[in-house]
């Protein structure tokens, strides 16, 4: 099936995803910048940003019941309205407790919207087209999130209008969804796996998911604060985030091909080691703008591939008697927990030293690199296929993963 025939019937979904991702990337980065300019302490910035990821975790547990009870389109409108309300209230009032609550509601709503969109994509995806749909989803999300970073360069006098722009972007997504003719899918209940059980089944994938969430959560929520501490330049923050995200998009395919050839264990170790080495270089060269951008691109090349590698590792290890979809959802939950703890820990650490962020990254990545090599190697004949995954995804994404179709894995490995 051609890409054109796949995209056209669900183009409204991709437009909605694109507008949401622009607003997501823009606001998530801007919150730290805005609070830093208000001279809010790093610890408080970390707590406020952590609330967004706490909302994401709660959404993966509770939002499905809401969506199932009132339907996809009504749920989308309701959660989009909540996001718009939180964005607008950010621009009107500033209070630390209020903003923490607003970020929690925003995170809950955003991830509920992703669940709705992903379940629609899954409804339209066949065994033949799932891989292409997920690849397009990944590209759209990366590019849209990168575009969102450009809005950070708005003139200083119009900074608060970023919240209004974010609201408009969310409303654009509602227009596309309201006019869609795609049939509403039925959400199946999520089975819950315990962390000890998942760790016993896929230990390397579980640890990699948590550390990946920590890195990405820190990247979006606290790294802009770090750059402002180093340079006091919002323009540099915009450039850094843009080039890092583009690096993350570019690296998905080559890292995937290498991991299919040499195995996930080895690639997780190599990617983690490069991330650790890059983090160490930040401590030395972060004062130079050119070096900072080069290191940002290098960091993007590696850290954004860790979670897809973790999911691929789980697919390698799990046998047909276990539900890989539910395991993948638990890995995504673990990723969310890592994202939640990241701004909390980094926010406190930045109060003592600007280099704490990358010292933390260095220690975690080096530990993961060593830990990966201690794990059992998977035989070549048992390897699954690497699949690209968006920067951020909801709990329905595992349903879209084409690796659950045995024919897809066999055809891709030939």
TrEMBL record:
Residues 9-377 form the Major facilitator superfamily (MFS) profile domain. Gene3D superfamilies: MFS general substrate transporter like domains. The keyword Membrane applies. It is a multi-pass membrane protein. InterPro entries: MFS, MFS_dom, MFS_trans_sf, MFS_YcaD-like, Sugar_transporter_CS. PROSITE patterns: MFS, SUGAR_TRANSPORT_1. Its main location: membrane. The chain crosses the membrane at residues 12-35, 41-63, 75-94, 100-121, 133-154, 160-180, 201-224, 236-255, 267-285, 291-310, 331-350, 356-374. One of its GO terms (cellular component) is plasma membrane. One of its GO terms (molecular function) is transmembrane transporter activity. Pfam families: MFS_1. It is found in: Cell membrane. It comes from the Bacteria. Keywords: Cell membrane, Membrane, Transmembrane, Transmembrane helix, Transport. PANTHER family: TRANSPORTER MFS SUPERFAMILY. This is MFS transporter.
């Amino acid at each position: 099936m051609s890409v054109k025939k796949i995209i056209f019937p669900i183009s409204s979904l991709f437009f909605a995803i694109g507008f949401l991702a622009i607003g997501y990337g823009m606001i998530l980065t801007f919150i730290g910048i805005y609070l830093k300019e208000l001279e809010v302490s790093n610890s408080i910035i970390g707590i406020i940003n952590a609330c967004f990821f706490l909302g994401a975790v709660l959404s993966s547990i509770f939002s499905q019941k809401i969506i199932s009870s009132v339907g996809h389109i009504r749920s989308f409108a309701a959660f989009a309205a909540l996001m718009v309300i939180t964005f607008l209230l950010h621009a009107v009032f500033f209070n630390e407790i209020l903003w923490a609550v607003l970020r929690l509601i925003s995170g809950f709503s955003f991830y509920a919207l992703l669940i709705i969109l992903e379940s629609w994509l899954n409804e339209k995806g066949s065994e033949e087209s799932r891989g292409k749909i997920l690849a397009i989803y990944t590209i759209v999300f990366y590019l849209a999130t990168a575009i969102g970073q450009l809005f950070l360069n708005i003139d200083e006098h119009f900074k608060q209008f970023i919240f209004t722009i974010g609201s408009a972007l969310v409303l654009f997504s509602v227009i596309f969804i309201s006019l869609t003719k795609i049939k509403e899918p039925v959400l199946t209940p999520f089975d819950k796996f315990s962390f000890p059980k998942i760790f016993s089944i896929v230990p390397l994938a579980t640890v990699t998911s948590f550390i990946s969430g920590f890195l990405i959560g820190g990247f979006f929520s606290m790294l802009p604060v770090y750059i402002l501490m180093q340079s006091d330049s919002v323009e540099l923050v915009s450039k850094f985030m843009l080039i890092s995200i583009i690096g993350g998009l570019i690296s998905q395919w080559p890292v995937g091909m290498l991991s299919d050839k040499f195995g996930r264990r080895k690639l997780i170790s190599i990617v983690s080691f490069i991330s650790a080495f890059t983090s160490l270089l930040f401590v030395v060269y972060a004062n130079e703008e050119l070096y900072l951008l080069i290191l940002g691109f290098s960091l993007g090349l590696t850290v954004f591939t860790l979670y897809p590698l973790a999911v691929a590792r789980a697919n390698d290890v799990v046998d047909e008697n276990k539900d890989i979809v539910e395991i993948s959802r638990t890995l995504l939950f673990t990723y969310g927990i890592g994202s939640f703890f990241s701004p909390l820990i980094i926010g406190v650490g930045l109060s003592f030293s600007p280099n704490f962020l990358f010292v933390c990254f260095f220690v975690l990545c080096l530990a993961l690199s060593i830990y990966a090599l201690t794990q059992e190697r998977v035989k070549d004949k048992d390897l699954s296929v690497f699949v690209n995954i968006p920067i951020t995804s909801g709990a329905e994404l595992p349903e879209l993963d084409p690796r659950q179709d045995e024919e897809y894995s066999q055809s891709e490995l030939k």
